[in-house]
Amino acid sequence: MPAAKIVIDNVSKSFQQGTMSALASCSLEVHPNEFLCLIGPSGCGKTTLLRIIDGLVAADAGRVLIAGAKVSAPRHDVAMVFQHFGLFPWKTVYDNIAYGLRVHGRPEGDVRVSVPQYIELVGLRGFEHSYPYQLSGGMQQRVGLARALAVDPTVLLMDEPFGSLDAQTRELMQEELLRLWRIQRKTLVFVTHSIDEAILLGDRVALMSRRPGSVKEIIVVEFPRPRDPEAVRSSPRYHELRHYIWDRLRAEVGGG
Amino acid sequence: MKGSVAIERSPAHARGAPVPPAVIRAASVLVGLIAWEVYGRVLNLSIFTYPSKIGAAFVAVVKSGELQFYLGSSIVVLSLGLLLAILVGIPLGVLIARRATVEYAIDPYINALYATPTVALIPVIVLWLGFQTKAKVFLVFLFCVFPILINTYQGVKNTDRRLVEVARSFCSREWSLWRDLILPSSVPFILAGIRLAIGRGLVGMVVAEFYTSISGLGYMIVQYANTFRTDRLFVPIVVLMVMGVGLTSLLRNLENRIAPWLKTTLGE
Q1: Which of A48, A230, B12, B16 would you label with A207, given CA atoms 20 to 30 Å apart?
Q2: Are the CB atoms for A41 and A22 separated by under 8 Å?
């Protein structure tokens, strides 16, 4: 599968008959196979931008290109992982992971081959027939991740996927994501409000301004991969970056 | 569901209530029955009755085949009315939930009919449809259709918008959105609607049989009340009670089995 580049070109979006401006001339390029973290003050339009990239919401002005094609509706080669997991409560783990493949109209033979691989990949073997309500939050998000990966997208969008997990689970899931992304290279846009998460995971961190949001600055995170979370967190450079990003964010949050 | 009841009650258990709820319930019913029996025997009035007399009357009415006959005709009326209500209520509920124009066009009728005590319509219905099964089925239908229709509407409207977005993100078409999302998430609401409809349907059935007075459990009640056979009068009442409790808990069971992820009971 060829890697896809995402170009966000002067995207604006407002809500409530134009009275609430969420994004104003937001531009950003995401390189092929890059892990890009999007961070910004709450309500800055991070999620809106992600939904525009996914084709769920249309921009008022500007455009988004994925692999050179303008996004106007959800695409088969773009998959999203949601903060609320977005699992179907009446489907088993297996059927939730198979959902994307089936809705894309893949033959059931492919589904039978694919789904067990992704169950294995996210470490959910033995839980195929469990229902989401029987799983912990971390396991539910593994299902969400497997469902998105199963359609083998070139672009993976993640909207604060670990935001509702407890601190320990969150760290485990971050390591898990680093491992998965090493195996399954995608162009990945990861929205987060955690500076630590952004530095630990991203190749670059795009910093958004407060509402109406636009990308204010891009910070390159040069830690080599594969990254060991412990080593990254204890390096002086990590603290420098953390401090720097926090300063820039504070200026936005504080209205400076 | 036994399981869910046990889970709900366990904190009380932990606080030191050693008697299981089922035992308390059974003991309470037993005490009530004994008190009734004793009071009835002491009072010894011809128009009063007590459990052992009712039991004997029950055996007599079953032996003569009377109960089976009237119960049969009541069940036919209830089933046909309920079936009709399901066949009309579910599609109409779905339609008004999905099409705003239909909703605005139909909701004045629904509101008006739902707010009108259905009993008030009985004379008109009898005038138009007669005293036979047709009129009774229609009455039961009127009693049943609104909870089904309204719950279906609520179920479709309550489809999690976030899940709709998930489906759209995976490029779901309209028909697969229905199959994967809207219908499965409405089913518990619809079942709860049917459960409420059964309760109302029983009322409708008895009232229709009172009024039309030709057959059914309602007719049995009226007949025995007119002849002061209080012990026999209670037989159809007990049967109705058992039907109400049985059918309602059957539906509740089905709801829990079909939608185990919903901890709370809908529609109440």
Answers
A1: A230
A2: no
Is A39 exposed, middle or buried, given 0-12, 13-18 or 19+ CB atoms closer than 10 A?
buried
Note whether B169 contacts A80, CB cutoff 8 Å.
yes
Question: CA-to-CA distance for B248 and B192, rounded, in angstroms?
Answer: 9
Q: pTM of the predicted model, to two decimals? A: 0.80
Q: Could A79 and B169 be called an inter-chain contact, meaning their C-beta atoms sit closer than 8 Å?
A: yes
- Give the CA diameter of chain B: 75
- pLDDT tens-place string over residues A186-204: 999 999 999 999 999 999 9
Residue A209 carries which DSSP code? Answer: P
The two three-digit tokens of residue B119, written as one number: 């009993």
Cα–Cα distance between A77 and A4 in angstroms, integer?
Answer: 9
Q: Which residues touch A5 (CB under 8 Å, ≥6 apart)?
A: A29, A30, A31, A32, A65, A66, A67, A68, A187
Minimal-distance CA residue of chain B relative to A54? B169
How far is B191 from B147, CA to CA, in rounded Å? 10
**Cβ within 8 Å, pair B170-A79:** yes
